[in-house]
Design a protein that fits this description.
The complex is a heterotrimer of chains A (about 210), B (about 220) and C (about 250).
Chain A (H helix, E strand, L loop, with lengths): L5 E10 L2 E11 L3 E7 L5 H9 L6 E6 L2 E2 L4 H6 L1 E4 L11 H11 L6 H10 L15 H9 L9 E5 L7 H16 L3 E5 L10 E7 L2
Chain B lengths: L1 H16 L1 H22 L3 H22 L3 H9 L1 H6 L5 H30 L4 H28 L6 H28 L5 H30 L1
Helix pairs in contact in B: 1-6, 2-3, 2-6, 3-6, 3-7, 3-8, 6-7, 6-9, 7-8, 7-9, 8-9
Chain C lengths: L10 H33 L13 H28 L2 H33 L7 H22 L3 H32 L15 H33 L4 H10 L5
Helix pairs in contact in C: 1-6, 2-3, 2-5, 2-6, 3-4, 3-5, 3-6, 4-5
The chains are: A alpha/beta (about 210), B mainly alpha (about 220), C mainly alpha (about 250).
Chain lengths: ~210, ~220, ~250
């Protein structure tokens, strides 16, 4: 039986002249959650970027639904949602405009109504038409995260999604991720905070510096 | 395809909301072109002799100054990462970015050039050739410039570095572009120059987006 | 016979190999240079138009050849490094760039020395001299880009891409400069139209070119060894090497 999820085989990564990590293996099946833990500089972000295809692995392979990602990159990327440290928002555009443009660029269909309800779900609807540059850090982060209420993508790769959020927003986000997992989605998450997300199976990958 | 249109519209909208940035490029072009008469004297014969070269060099520098902005904000706010992992082919997105850059920084220069040409005592048919040559040549400047802009993303001193990388590659455009205007001044047909210019632009259109896409992947890594 | 080329493609095995090769290439370079200089100064006849001054072409022409040739080789290494994602080819490209730039500069300076007695001016916007000048800009751009990127691997890749873009453009630039040159009257004196080639002269240039070539290899190998040590300073083989060099006192 071929896997329906994502498998990493013997991944290693070199930055500059030092090895960040090597021999990383894991398998994530639908409904599964993978925590990536480690100190600052242990390569958590690099691992996530490597999984998305932003960084080339020094060795190893990533398989998506049984096929090597190298040969089926487009399929993989249209099932993948990645959120890094940067919000990917344009300062001179409003949250609505940003979300519309980002969805189109990612190849998704969204209408304005869906965007409004996504903004409402994470409680930033009242600044929906202000330019992003006047929003606070937490509000910007929430606007960026509202993508998660719009997407139908199966694999979420989230780098520190809980940073800069207040406790209410953290709870909202946790319940959204659990909902995604219970619908057969998958998530790979790095975090510093003690956050409990309910999932059918939870794995922890610990990177050492 | 829809992603290309979306990206183009987004960049034009952003440029519209930051109109002053666009104006800076144009003012630069105007100022550089106005300095030469002050430096070499106001004789119309001298001015019309140097006009093709001066106007083309000014256009080249104006286009180059705005290159650093082409990917910089996408790079710093994370939009670029999202473009790189989008299922759309990256070279197509690059074409959208380059087209937006050309509309914002290249086209105004093309439209403004005849006015400055008049100040340089260029005759009417030479003015027409000037506009045509700029119209055919400036897209190549944006396309080749995009490679330099992508290579120098996140590099210290990128503004000066980009000049060093890109200006030598601009030389064919300068030669054919200024040559076309000079040819028409001497009463020779500018057709050969213009077709070579168009050929160069087409070649850049075919090759530069791929090189730029590769450069972006290297810079974001 | 099946030679395992990949054995030498890792810095660790290439380092000592390069060290053994350097003296050979250096000596061959010296021998060729002595022969070449002897031919150019004592055997080649005095030119009846230009007198003795023309003898500078024995340096100028081979230097110009090398400047273009090295750029091609550099781009070749760069392409290899980019396609195989290998370290050694990228290091070779980086090691060749300064030598290429020096030969370009040498060709420019000697060209200008030659121009003074011939045309009475230090510089003419001749098609070849102008192309050579632009080539120097391309070299400098490559070196500047590589040295301003901190991560060496990123620098390798960015430099390689730039070298490839450059190598596609070099023929276009050369063609356009030539076209520009023929259109503008007044500077139609071409270096090619200078002295008629005699076999001995050609031979002299050939030996000089070979000497330059061997010199380039020797210097590039020396430079690549330095680059290896610098980049791999954290690896075990460099530490072992260091320990040996300091007699275990490090």
């Amino acid at each position: 039986m071929t896997s329906k999820g994502v498998t990493a085989v013997d991944l290693s990564c070199v930055r500059g002249d030092r090895i960040l990590f090597k021999h990383i293996d894991f398998t994530l099946e639908p409904g599964g959650l993978l925590y990536v833990l480690g100190e600052n500089g242990s390569g958590k972000s690099s691992l996530l970027r490597l999984l998305c295809g932003l960084i080339k692995a020094e060795s190893g392979a990533i398989h998506w639904q049984g096929a090597d990602v190298k040969h089926a990159l487009e399929v993989f990327q249209s099932d993948l949602l990645y959120m890094g440290h940067l919000n990917g928002l344009k300062e001179d555009m409003s949250p609505i405009e940003n979300l519309q443009v980002n969805a189109h660029l990612a190849g998704d269909n969204v209408n304005k109504q869906a965007i409004l309800s996504a903004l409402e779900a994470i409680d930033v609807k009242r600044c929906d038409s202000l330019p992003v540059r006047v929003l606070s850090q937490g509000q910007k982060k929430r606007v960026a995260l509202s993508r998660l209420w719009l997407t139908k993508r199966k694999l979420w790769i989230l780098d520190e999604p809980f940073a800069a959020l207040d406790s209410t927003s953290v709870d909202l986000l946790v319940s959204r991720i659990s909902q995604h997992l219970s619908n057969g989605g998958m998530a790979i998450v790095t975090t510093h905070q003690e956050v409990v997300i309910s999932a059918q199976s939870t794995q922890v990958l610990r990177l050492s510096a | 395809m829809r992603a290309v249109v979306t990206l183009l519209r987004r960049d034009l909208l952003l440029a519209f909301r930051r109109r002053s940035d666009v104006a800076t490029t144009l003012f630069f072009f105007l100022i550089v072109a106005s300095l030469f008469p002050l430096g070499v004297g106001p004789e119309p014969a001298v001015l019309s002799r140097i006009a093709p070269g001066v106007l083309w060099v000014a256009a080249l520098l104006a286009g180059m100054l705005s290159l650093t902005r082409m990917f910089a904000s996408d790079f710093s706010d994370g939009s670029l990462e999202q473009m790189l992992i989008a299922p759309q082919p990256l070279p197509m997105l690059v074409i959208a970015k380059v087209l937006a850059h050309w509309i914002v920084c290249g086209l105004p220069v093309v439209l403004l050039a005849p006015m400055i040409g008049l100040q340089y005592a260029l005759p009417n048919d030479a003015l027409l050739v000037l506009v045509l040559s700029l119209l055919l040549g400036t897209p190549a400047l944006s396309l080749i410039g995009a490679i330099g802009a992508a290579l120098t993303l996140g590099v210290r001193g990128s503004g000066l570095l980009i000049a060093l990388l890109v200006l030598p590659l601009y030389i064919p455009v300068l030669i054919f572009g200024a040559g076309a205007v000079a040819a028409s001044q001497h009463g020779v047909s500018a057709e050969a120059h213009l077709s070579l210019l168009a050929a160069f632009s087409l070649l850049s259109l075919v090759l530069a987006p791929f090189a730029t896409a590769a450069a972006l992947r290297i810079s974001v890594e | 016979m099946n030679i395992n080329w990949f054995k030498y493609s890792s810095p660790q095995t290439f380092y000592p190999l390069a060290g053994r090769m350097i003296p050979w290439f250096a000596w061959i370079a010296v021998i060729f240079a002595v022969i070449g200089l002897y031919i150019s100064f004592f055997i080649a006849p005095t030119d009846f138009q230009q007198g003795e001054a023309y003898r500078i072409i024995f340096v100028h022409v081979p230097a110009a050849w090398m400047s273009m040739f090295i750029y091609m080789v550099m781009a070749g290494w760069a392409a290899l490094g980019l396609s195989l994602n290998a370290r050694l080819p990228a290091m070779m490209a980086q090691a060749l760039a300064p030598t290429g730039a020096i030969f370009t500069l040498l060709a420019l300076v000697t060209g200008s020395f030659w121009g003074k007695p011939m045309w009475g001016t230090w510089w003419v916007w001749d098609a070849r001299l102008t192309s050579e000048l632009i080539l120097l800009f391309l070299y400098l751009g490559f070196i500047a880009l590589q040295s301003s990127i901190d991560d060496p691997r990123k620098a390798d890749k960015a430099g390689a891409l730039l070298a490839l873009v450059g190598v596609v453009n070099v023929p276009i630039i050369y063609f356009s400069v030539k076209w520009w040159n023929t259109l503008h009257q007044g500077s139609t004196i071409s270096m090619g139209a200078a002295p008629k080639m005699v076999t001995t002269m050609l031979l002299g240039m050939l030996f000089m070119a070979l000497a330059f070539w061997m010199y380039t290899i020797a210097v590039a190998l020396m430079r690549v060894r330095c680059i290896m040590l610098e980049r791999e300073r954290a690896s075990d083989w460099v530490k072992v090497l260091l320990l040996k060099a300091t007699g275990g006192n490090a």
